[in-house]
Design brief:
By secondary structure, the protein is mainly alpha-helical. Helix content is about 70%, strand content about 5%. The protein contains nine helices and two strands.
Length: about 190
């Protein structure tokens, strides 16, 4: 449920205006948001964020001429922001499978040879690494760098941005393209393992 309490620093006229807008546009706006997010809870969160922006706009005395249009634009932007903040793809997520009747998640790492040093496991480890290195070499330089720094060197996107000078959204995009390419490129290896 949307909280209709308005900060005390605003005038009664402003408080009433905001309450009227919320009551009038809530259902239509919630329907709009709900079609674009996975759950009702997410839709309620986005709606709350939109109304929070509305209150802040009134608090800063910024006039909003076309209220309905403004609300839907803010909602669209909040939905986009929410998707950008989601955890980016990782290679393991693409190779994860459900195994057995209990539905336990199994990752590609579960099928990699363990720490034993038998000739078979050493040969398999070398073959896997050779395929991975070759696939990484095929990536464009920027995609390869962000993938290696994030996945193998465990650097955050902020750290990578500081090192490369690229913004975080660009890095997320490069990593996604790298993961999608590696997924397709290593599909045969995946099929052989499973």
């Amino acid at each position: 449920m949307v909280n209709l309490s308005i900060p005390l620093s605003m005038s009664d006229t402003q408080n009433e205006s905001i309450k009227q807008v919320i009551v009038k546009e809530r259902k239509r706006l919630l329907d709009f948001i709900r079609k674009r997010v996975p759950t009702q809870e997410d839709a309620e969160d986005v709606l709350q964020d939109v109304f929070y922006e509305l209150v802040n706009t009134y608090r800063l005395m910024k006039p909003v001429e076309q209220m309905a249009s403004w609300l839907f634009t803010v909602a669209r932007n909040k939905i986009t922001d929410r998707y950008r903040k989601k955890k980016p793809d990782s290679l393991e997520d693409h190779f994860a499978i459900r195994a057995g009747d209990d539905g336990d998640r199994m990752d590609i790492s579960d099928f990699l040879p363990s720490g034993t040093n038998s000739p078979e496991t050493e040969m398999m480890r070398e073959a896997i690494m050779q395929d991975l290195v070759q696939a990484l070499d095929e990536l464009p330089k920027e995609q390869r760098e962000v993938f290696i720094m994030h996945e193998l060197e465990d650097k955050s996107y902020q750290e990578i941005a500081e090192l490369t000078g690229a913004n975080v959204n660009t890095l997320l995009s490069r990593k996604r393209y790298a993961v999608l390419y590696l997924r397709e490129r290593l599909q045969n290896l995946y099929a052989d393992l499973f």
